[in-house]
Amino acid sequence: MNKAFVLDYPVALDPKEDLLASLRQNLASGHHQHVVTLNPEMLMAGEQNSRLEKILKSADLILPDGAGVVWALRHKKNLPVRRIPGIDFSDALITHAAAHQESIALIGASPEVNAATETALKQKYPGLVISYRHHGFSEDKALIAQECADTHPKYVFVALGVPNQEFWIEEFKPFFTQPTAFIGVGGSFDVWSGTKKRAPALFCRLNLEWLYRITFEPWRFGRVYKPLPSFVFRILTEKDSVNSN
Fold this sequence. Notes:
Helix 2 crosses helix 3. The strands form two sheets. Strands 4-3-8-7-5-6 form a six-stranded parallel sheet, sandwiched between helices. A three-stranded antiparallel sheet has the order 2-1-9, with helices on one face. The radius of gyration is 17 Å and the shape is globular. The protein is α/β, with parallel strands linked by helices and 245 residues long. The longest helix has 14 residues, at 86-99. It is built from 13 helices and nine strands. It starts with a strand and ends with a strand.
């Protein structure tokens, strides 16, 4: 796998299809896979939280999800990287799971959104097996994780937001005795369930999905822009802030 380091975070450079194939091969070899969908907000949160930073940097696969991460890779080292949205990568995993009788699990979101996500995914992907699902409003997280692990899903999609979804994966990954892929998907359940609409294709192609979201969800403005100036400043001023291998 080709990687480049953005502020010491190893980001994958290979095309999505190659990364999907590599993930499946690693699962077949008996290894859990933790997938991180990196954006500047998450990266800067890691700068403030050492536990989160350690989890992110040690993930098996870090996708260039955020437009800011892609910008850093392109403009500092002129690397031919393309943005890989976590929701697109997850859709590809679900498509493969449905076609090969591999089960998935859904952890997180509200009870209503979680249930609606199951319904919508089963309608979209004929033959999909959802072995377990549970919303994100429960105090007994260990029990939920054990119940989920007992169903032996191949892919676990965790929609608890950053950093909680990463903490959940770190804490409960050992509960799973068979090779499993874990991916934190943030608000993807809202899109899959039809609760919210994703940005139009043009915004996605131009890496402006963030602009569409804050236009229709202005409450995101402070959360998105607060860490962005710090991220840009770090990239522009720190020597060797982006390294490739």
